[in-house]
Design brief:
alpha/beta, globular, 35% helix, seven-stranded mixed β-sheet, binds S-adenosylmethionine, Rossmann fold, 286 residues
Length: 286
């Protein structure tokens, strides 16, 4: 851990007693946003990109009912006044827009947000689907900063601690929890979930960006040529990580997936920091 982070932790331990928490200002719209005159141009360009995405996704059963003028502009305005001013460690503006759009288009009645952290993804999902039941899971809720009154925050893993007697047919899971993504696919399929969105779906060549080996294999591994690979090794923050490739497991997980879509990366439109684009997975029905 860097000295600055250590110092911030020490200061925050004292400030926590009076309900104050210092956060590092990240480069995002909040700290260096575009002006109102640019905003309408950017929103129109983003809308164009999302419309074209939704039109492509019709073939896998997503309709384009999200296509309502003004929703993205409203989301942008809400975002600027949202309580989370620092999105480091979670999805940021670009992926928030994409998550908002896909969740809106899917319009699920039940949403699982796995990996609450400060509460930003749950905040996005609430704006996308005002009528959905949303449960947000994290093994520790100590970082939760924005609490949506109508979101159910649960301190546990979604699968081991969450409900299983739900109507999963019209559900969406958002996995941003640094847990083995193939395991998340297996779990979602067990419950009968049809749609899942993943953050941090790093490709095989970019494993060094993908946290520790606990968060592997990624969804992308199901579609990578790993036949001749027995073990992947990489370094992250100076630590060595190894992953034994379980070919049989990857092959059976692949059978659970009907469609795999890498969602767009819109930093070239918004000018906000690049983040690895999200992944959309459609699971086969039972
Ligand atoms: C990248 S953060 C989530 C960011 C959040 N989705 C956002 O966009 O603001 C990852 C979170 O996953 C949580 N996590 C770790 N293991 C988990 C598990 N088994 N189930 C749910 N959350 C878990 C961590 O505690 C951490 O808060």
């Amino acid at each position: 851990m860097k000295i600055r982070s250590k110092l911030a932790n020490i200061v925050n331990q004292s400030l926590g007693a009076v309900g104050v928490h210092l956060v590092k200002c990240e480069y995002d719209l909040i700290s260096s946003g575009f002006t109102d005159s640019c905003q309408s141009i950017v929103t129109a360009k983003v809308q164009e990109r999302i419309d074209s995405l939704l039109s492509d996704l019709k073939s896998i059963g997503i309709n384009d009912r999200f296509n309502t003028p003004g929703r993205l502009a409203d989301f942008h305005r809400d975002y600027l006044v949202s309580a989370v001013k620092n999105h480091g460690g979670g999805i940021q503006y670009n992926n928030a827009i994409v998550l908002f759009s896909i969740a809106s288009a899917l319009s699920p009645s039940l949403i699982i947000d796995s990996g609450t952290f400060r509460g930003f993804s749950a905040w996005v999902l609430r704006r996308a689907c005002p009528g959905a039941r949303i449960s947000s899971f994290d093994v520790s809720l100590q970082n939760l900063r924005i609490r949506e009154p109508s979101v159910n925050y649960v301190q546990s893993d979604w699968f081991s601690g969450g409900p299983d007697a739900e109507d999963w047919k019209n559900s969406l899971c958002f996995f941003d929890d640094h847990v083995d993504q193939v395991k998340r696919i297996e779990e979602a399929a067990t419950r009968g979930v049809r749609w899942a969105i993943f953050d941090d779906d790093t490709s095989v060549g970019a494993t060094h960006q993908g946290h520790n080996s606990r968060s592997f294999p990624k969804v992308s591994f199901l579609y990578s040529d790993l036949e001749s690979v027995e073990k992947l090794s990489w370094q992250n923050r100076g630590r060595q990580h190894d992953l034994i490739i379980d070919h049989a497991r990857l092959a059976s997980a692949r059978l659970l997936v009907e469609s795999y879509v890498r969602l767009p990366e819109i930093s070239s439109i918004t000018g906000c920091s690049y983040q690895l684009p999200l992944t959309l997975v459609k699971l086969r029905g039972r």
